[in-house]
Every structure is written in structure tokens, then in C-alpha cells.
Amino acid sequence: MSAEASDDRVAGFTTFRFGDGPELCDRLLGLVIAGQKTATCGALREFEADPESRPAIGRRDIACRWDWTPAVMIETVDVFECAFRDVPEDFALAEGEGTFAEWRDGHVDYFTRNGGWSEDMLLLCERFRVIEVLE
């Protein structure tokens, strides 16, 4: 989930990539930079496997391109856990990926590709703000 990028601007920050491939990563970064995406979520199981990657309110992280080039610094403003079936509509819309139904369909596909999906699966939901675009 995170790696060390070799750019001095990211020294001391956790780095991560959105999505599970270069196309999705680029699309999601574009939404963040445009101000349309102010939230993200992941399967709680991923954060249990890598506790250092778990977002915390006030922490700043670096979102990178798929090749680990730093793209944007974000700051976490809210974090909560909930079951997939209980994700609030306003949170899903803050992810910037279309309607609530489109968010749901896209995330069912994503989680199915990445370890499995169920209505009961726990998610770690994060709201963030952009601090600086780095590219």
C-alpha cells in the first residue's frame, strides 16, 4: 500500500497510490487535483496488514503516480470505519466518481479484484483536503 518514493519532497511522509493500476490511479489523481475527489476508502483488512498506512486525522500523506512520482500532498480531516452496506451517500459522492450507484458498482468491482467483496466487509473511510499539488 505504501512505498518509499525517491523524491526529497516526500521524505518523512507516507506515500501511496490510488487504485490498482496506472489508468485508475491517473483518473483518481485527476479528480483529486481538480477538487472533485475529497474522500477515499479501502478495505480495513489492507490497513490491518500495514498499520503504518492507516490514515489519521491531521496527518499529511503523498499521493503518487503509478510510477511513484509524487503528485499531491493531502491532509486527513476525518476517518471512520463502516460496513460497505452502510457507507453514507454523501461520503460516496465525495469520492468524486459519479452517482451513488456508480460508486457502488465501481467499488464492488474494485474490491472483487482485490481480495474479495461483501456487503458486510469493513471499510476505512477517509476525508481529506489537498495541501499542495507537487507536479
Automatic annotation (TrEMBL):
Q: Name the Gene3D superfamilies on file.
A: Sulfate adenylyltransferase
Q: Which residues form the ASCH domain?
A: 16-132
**Any idea what this protein is called?**
ASCH domain-containing protein
InterPro entries per the UniProt record, alphabetical: ASCH_domain, DUF984, PUA-like_sf
Signal peptide interval: none
Do you know which CDD domains this protein is assigned to? ASCH_Ef3133_like
Q: Name the SMART domains for this protein.
A: ASCH
Organism lineage string = Bacteria, Pseudomonadati, Pseudomonadota, Alphaproteobacteria, Rhodobacterales
